[in-house]
Amino acid sequence: MSRVKLLLLLSLATLCASAYGANPGRPGTINYIEGSALVAGAPVTQKSVGTLALDPGQVLSTKQGHAEVLLTPGIYLRLSTTTAAYA
Q1: pLDDT tens-digit readout, 17-31
Q2: What is the DSSP string of 21-82?
Q3: Exposed, middle or buried: residue 48 (CB in 10 Å: 0-12, 13-18, 19+)?
Q4: Residue 67 near residue 49, CB atoms below 8 Å
Q5: In terms of C-beta density within 10 A (0-12 exposed, 13-18 middle, 19 or more buried), how is residue 4 classed?
Q6: Mean pLDDT for all residues in the chain
Q7: What is the pLDDT of residue 33?
Q8: Which residues contact 56 (CB under 8 A, 6 or more apart)?
Q9: In this model, does residue 76 exceed pLDDT 50?
Q10: Predicted local distance difference test score (pLDDT) of residue 12
């Protein structure tokens, strides 16, 4: 019985540790890009996806591509070719 408890405790600790290391999404964060996307005229790279957040007044635009911005948890704004969104 103690092996089962130890295994359960280790499993729970592993799950909780990954939750503490996760970066929760903030509203305005760019969640996905495909093709060409620009924020305030500067290109968005794949490395900045998930960390780059739009500031008030910034413009996200796409040219021959798609982009997705987190509005609230579970709700996204999706842009397609030659569209723009204003923060």
Answers
A1: 545 445 567 888 999
A2: HS----TTBEEEEEEEEEETTEEPPGGGTTT-BPPTT-EEEEEEEEEEEEEETTEEEEE-TT
A3: middle
A4: no
A5: exposed
A6: 79
A7: 92
A8: 87
A9: yes
A10: 67
Q: What length does the chain have?
A: 87
SS3 at position 87: coil
Residue 53 phi, psi dihedral angles, 5° rounding:
-115, 140
Q: What Rg value do the Cα atoms of the chain yield, rounded?
A: 18
**66, 34 in Cβ contact below 8 A?**
yes
pTM of the full predicted structure?
0.62
- Supply the pLDDT for residue 41: 87
Cα 16 to chain centroid, rounded: 21
The pLDDT score that the predictor gives to residue 29 is 92
The tokens describing 25, both together, are 């999404």
